Amino acid sequence: MKAASVGWSAAGLAAPLIVALLALPPLLARLGAERFGLLSLAWALTAMSGLFDLGLGRATTRMIADQLGRGDRQAPRGTMTACCHSYRGSVTSSGYSASASVAIPTSALPCTT
Can you say how many angstroms the Cα of residue 25 is from the centroid of all Cα atoms in its chain? Predict the structure, then answer.
């Protein structure tokens, strides 16, 4: 691996961190604690959705790169279609599992009668 590649990879990881460190204090001051908390929850849910990827993104990227490297220009379309169907199925089934695991028992709800 070339040193320049390592440098670009490190810069690619460091840049979002630096931007976040600069942007979060004014964002917190402007939104307030409650709204910033909601934004943080949205960010956390977005980050957690990456767990449902199950490696499909990397596998698809590698497979398409191999196909294009062989000069096959038609195969990536089929690969992307298969990946989208697989991803949709994994996210849907994971979403059902997650929603079932966070169901609140009715005995924990306050009575409003």
Answer: 24
